[in-house]
Amino acid sequence: MIYTQLTTGVQKIMVTGITVHSSKEALRLTRLFPGTLYATAGVHPHEAKSWDETTEEALRELAANPEMVAIGECGLDFNRNFSPPDVQIEAFEKQVALACELQKPLFVHEREAHTALLEVLGRYRERLPTVVIHCFTGDSTQATAYLNMGCYIGLTGYVWKDKSEDGVRRILEDGVVPLDRLMVETDAPFMYPNTRASKLPPYVKEALTERSLTFLHRYCTFQRNEPCSLPVTIEMIAAYMKKKSEQVALQTTFNAIKVFGLSS
After folding, report:
1. What is the pTM of this model?
2. What is the spatial distance between Cα 167 and Cα 11, in angstroms, rounded to a whole number?
């Protein structure tokens, strides 16, 4: 998860935990780069089967550190079901309850589990902290439901390949997600923004600057997504929204600083 200001480059990086061990490692990295790296503490739905009697207290202790700015990456993934759905729901609900207790933002993964995820969030609606739907790939109805719940929508380089009639591109073109509820992220090393794809509209390709493309093609070897890809993702999103890339960069950076309490 990376946030940036387009005019100055990457400023803040969130290192996301997906298990107790990786959350501890993420915290360790923040101590090496204070003020630049931040971390999250959570158990990803793929790893929900690893949850045991020590997990909740371990996450609580990790989250007590000021560098830990959110609970997650947690949520539900019924596409792959690397952990059984009932196990995912139980682990997710415990993390939602922990976020409510600590009033830390929730960093949420959801794939093909929209209804079930809303049901869990709905049970805590009166106490919910801010929720970020990470790497959103759904449709306008789902986006609207999340926005009505008070969530922020996180978008990645996935925007280059979505050609569905009511997917992320249409959501941006139709202004479904207001700029003050949008976050832009990498999901590194995944979600590489393929700017050479034939399915990318010409007007979006024309909006990409030489500077951003240079960063992308020079440093993202073998299409492994890196922080330097983020300006291109912002320029694609801005083109779909018919806004200036600087406006999108500045507003989404402000959103991240506000939601996660990052030092400015």
Report:
1. 0.94
2. 29
Q: How many residues appear in the chain?
A: 264
pLDDT-derived band at 111, boundaries 50, 70, 90: very high
d(CA 245, CA 230): 11
Residues 152, 133 contacting (CB under 8 angstroms): yes
Instruction: Name the residue among 81, 126, 66, 75 with its Cα closest to residue 100.
Output: 126
Model confidence pLDDT, tens digit, residues 5-17 = 443 477 889 999 9
- How far apart CA 117 and CA 67 sit, in angstroms, is 27
Go through 23-39 and write b for each residue having 16 or more CB atoms within 10 A of its CB, e for each that does not. beebbeebeeeeeebbb
Using omega within 30 degrees of 0 as the cis cutoff, is the peptide bond preceding 101 cis?
no
CA–CA distance, 115 with 221 (Å, rounded to integer): 37
Q: Are 246 and 252 in contact (CB under 8 A)?
A: no
